[in-house]
Amino acid sequence: MSRHPFRVSSSFVCRNLYHNNNKRWKTTATRRNTLGVLLFFVLVLVSVAFFSSSLSSVFSSFERMTTTTNNNNEEEEAQQKCAKILDHLRSMNESEAERQTRLDLSECGLRTVPKEVLRLRNLEFLNLGKNKLNALPDSFAKDLPNLKILFCLANEFRKVPEVLGEMEHLFMLSFKANKVREIPEQSLPIASLGWLILSDNEIEVLPKSLGKCRKMRKLMLAGNKIKELPTFMSELVNLELLRASDNRIEVFPEFLYRLPKLAWLAFAANPCTEKAAANAMERGTRAVKRVVNFEDLGVDEGKKLGSGASGTVYRGEMDGFNVAIKVYNNMGKTSDGRPEDEMAAASLATSTTSDIVEGEQDEQEETVGSGGVIETLAKFTTKDGKRGLVMEYLDPADWKNLGGPPSFETVTRDVFDEREGKFTAREILAVAVNVAKGINQLHKNGVCHGDIYAHNILIDRDEDYPSAKLGDFGAAMFFDDDENPQFSQMVRENEARAFGCLLDDMLVNYDGTRGGSNTVMIRENIEAGQTQYAGNKIFMEPKSYRPSTHLDNDEGKPEGELTPAQSREERERRRDEHLQKRTHERREADKGLVSINLPEDGHEKTIASLRQLADDLMHPTRSVRPKNFEAVVKRVQESEKLFFGDYYAKKLESLQILQRRRYDVDLLRDRSLFSRRKDPKRREKRNDDDKETK
C-alpha cells in the first residue's frame, strides 16, 4: 500500500522530538557551564580586588598611624619647647623683660601669639616661623612698639594683618610660604619698611601702598600669581634687589629700566622671559659635549657635599680625578627660579661661541673659557631620569667662601670675617680679574647671573697666586639682544653695579699690603702652554691636573679607561704614574722661566684704580656705567698692568697668553691653555676638499 504523501509515522515524530529535546538540553547545559565559568572568574576577581583593597587599606592605615605617631611626637616636642620658653618669660621680672630684645618662638605649634610675648615692650627681633598662626592680636603694634624684624615663615596667614601698618620701626617683614592672597593697603608700615619677603604665596595683586615704601631695598615676590608689576613701584628709588621669578608676568615692566640702584634681579620662569630661556636651554645641551654614565662616576649617595631645592651635590671621580657631581631635581622649585634654568646657566658658563655653534670647532680641539666661573666638564642622566652635571672639584682645604650672606644690618651687602675678612691687594686684584672675566663670559652667552655676591665666590688665598671663581647659578635668567635689546642692556648695567658693590666691599676690607713676594715668574716658551701666573708650585702639584671636557680626547686621561669597579689602589697608582710623567715634561719646559720684579708702588696704584672703577660702576646714573662688561674687563686689566708693571704686560701681549685658572696645566700637551686661532685659509681649504670628496 502506498503511503500518503503528508502522512508521518509516529516513530518518526518521536525520534525528531527526542533529538530536538536532546539538542536543546545540550545547548542549555553548555550555556549553564559557560555562565558558571564566568561567574567563577567574576568571584575570583572580586575576591582579589577585595583582598588588594584590604591590603592597601591596611598599609594606608599603617602609614596613617606612622604619620600620626610622628606628628604627635613633633607636636609634643613643640609643646614642650613652647612651654619651656613661656615659663621662662613668666619668670622674668619687669627689668628683665625690658632687657629682652630677641625672641625665637619658631616651631612651637602656636595658633595664637601668647600674651607673655606682648609684655616685652623692647623686643626688636621676633621669630614666629613654622607655626599655625593665621592672625595677630589687635594690640600687637601697641604692645611691641620697638619691633624691627618679624618672621612669620610657613604659617597659615591668608592675608597680611593690618595691624602691622601701625608699627613705626618695623624694617624687615617675612610672610614667606604662607597662603597669603590679600595684602590690605593699611598692612604695610610705609615709613620704615625696607625688606619685604612675600615669596611662595598666592598673591595676584600688590597694594598701592607698596609704592610709598621709599626705604625699600630688598623685595622678594617669587613664587606667586602676579600678572604684572604695577607702575607705582617706579617710586622705589632705593630698591637694590628684586626677586620676581616664577610668576605670571607677561610683559617686562619698563620702569625697572630706570631704577637707579637696582643691581640684583631674578625674573626667570615668567612668560616674558620664557622665549630666551628656551633658547638658552637648547644651547646649554649643545655646550656640554661630553656625556658620561652616572654609574661610572663612583658616587656614594650616602655622602653629600651639599643639597638644596635645586638638587644634590656629591663627590665623585672621572678619569681618575676628583669631581663635583650635581644631580638636579627635575620637578624642584627654588626661591629664585627653576633647577632647569640653573642647569642651563651652569652649562653655558664656561662655554664659548664655538662650543655652542655646531661646525665651528675643530675635532679634538678644546677651547679656553674665561676661568672665572666653576667649570662644567660633562653631563649625565641617572637611571630614574634625573639629569646632572659633572663640575670641577675645588678642595675645601684650599677654596673658601669669599664672604658671608648679608645680615639684617647690611641688608644687601655681604659680611666678612673680622679676622680672615681682610684682603691684600693681590687678592683683591685676583677676584676682580677672574670674576670680571667670568661675568663677561656669561653675558656673551646670554646669561644673567643675578646674584653676584661674595658668598657665591670661592677664593684660593695662596700668598703668591690667589685665584677666585664665581658659582651658584640659582638666580640665573637669560636674555637675547635680538629679542629685547633694552632688557639686555639693563641686565648688563645691573650686573655692572653688583660687581661694583663687590669691589667696594673688598676695598673696604683692604689690609694695606701688597701680599706675596715682590717678583712674578713668567715663561717665555709659548710651546710649554704656561698660564699667566707661572711658578714651580703650579706644575709640581698633582691638583694642577684636571679631567678632559672633550668627548673624544684621550690624551688627557691616564692610560686605560678606569671604572669604579677597579680597585682604588690601582687607580691611584696609574694617576701617580701619569702625574710623574707630566711633572717630568713640566721640568723640561721649565728652562724658559723669567723672574720679573714688581713695581714698588704698583699695588697702591692698583687699589686706587679699582676704587675709581667701583665708584663708576655704583653710580646712580645708569648712563655713567659701562654699556657692556667687556669695558669692565678692560678697566680691570688696566689695574692689573699697574700691579705687575709695563714690562710684564708687554711680555704677556707678546706671548699671547690667556689667563686660565691657577690649577690648569695642559692635559693636551701644548693646547689646553690656548685658544687656537681659526685659520680662514685652512678652513676654506678644508671646505674645498670636502666639496671635491662629495
Work out the helicity level: 25-40%
Question: What kind of sheet is the major sheet?
Answer: 8 strands, parallel
Mean residue pLDDT:
80
Q: What distance separates the N and C termini?
A: 104 Å
Shape: globular
Unreliable residue runs? 353-368, 525-545, 550-559, 656-683
Number of helices: 14
Integer-rounded radius of gyration? 35 Å
**Looking across the biggest beta sheet, what order are the strands in?**
1-2-3-4-5-6-7-8
The amount of beta strand, in percent, is: 5-15%
Oligomer: single chain
Structural class: alpha/beta
Total beta strands: 20
Question: Briefly, what is this?
Answer:
By secondary structure, the protein is an alpha/beta fold.
Q: What is the topological layout?
A:
Elements: H1 10-90, H2 94-99, E1 102-104, E2 125-127, H3 140-143, E3 149-151, E4 172-174, E5 195-197, E6 218-220, E7 241-243, E8 264-266, H4 274-287, E9 304-307, E10 311-318, E11 321-328, H5 339-349, H6 353-356, E12 376-381, E13 387-392, E14 399-401, H7 425-444, E15 447-448, E16 457-460, E17 467-470, E18 477-478, H8 485-508, E19 519-523, H9 536-540, H10 568-588, E20 593-597, H11 602-617, H12 629-644, H13 646-655, H14 680-693
Helix pairs in contact: 4-5, 7-8, 7-11, 7-12, 8-11, 11-12
